[in-house]
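Predict the 3D structure for this chain.
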Amino acid sequence: MNQVLRTTIGMLAALAATSTFAASPVRGAGDLARSSDIPQRLPTPSLAANGLAGPTAADVGDADSFGRAVNWLGLAAESIELETDCMGVTGNCQLIAPSPAYTSFSFSDIAHITLPAKSAKSLLCYWFSPLLTISYNNPTATAVVAHLNYSPSVTVENSVLNDPTLIDPSTGVPFGGQLLTGLTSSEHREVPLPAGLALTERTRDSTVCIAGLVSQSALVNTWGLSNAQAKEFFKHKTTLRLNIDGSAQYVDSASLYFGLRVVGD
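Done. Predicted structure below.
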């Protein structure tokens, strides 16, 4: 075994031992929120009422939107800064606790889109695009694993949800005009840092909805609305508010930019 290989194995072993004792990341609302984006395990009958024979949910997964054109419905974007000093920072800023403490952060309604009534027929879908610049630092004399985690969620406001007889299954109380849905776009980043190492990384990626940000079938099967209420939902104005929750450890600073583009059928 050559010296380079021995050194590599030793470093990995040290990092593995360190990560074993690392504190658990703080889970954000995006992790905990019930999500319209997770499709039901068993397909459900189509809610479409066009009177024509067509593919079922068992055939195509989402029969309500099958064959419809995609419409561009809007864009919202905003950034979050993690800093040791927020003085002079405009916008959303979270002070970072000294290492090795975890810093948790939670920002609500950092950006929003308000869609006019009848903007879509049965489905709102999203593209979520984070642009992250993260500076990690290990000031200690031992190897550590740095963490940065974030979870997006969206608060969906619609007057159909004002009905006091409609109960939010995630809270057990009436919706009060809004529901909170998680996105399948959370990230959990882990970076091994040898003693005394500091580094900065910049990443750019995107995710696309699975079942949708909100859909007729999810309103019925996930949120408990009737078929008639789910159809009525799309006939009303809808506001979408982006929330970000997360945590960081061994991070000196970070600039987290998030873009949310919405399309519908």
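Confidence is low (pLDDT under 50) at residues 1-32, 46-50.
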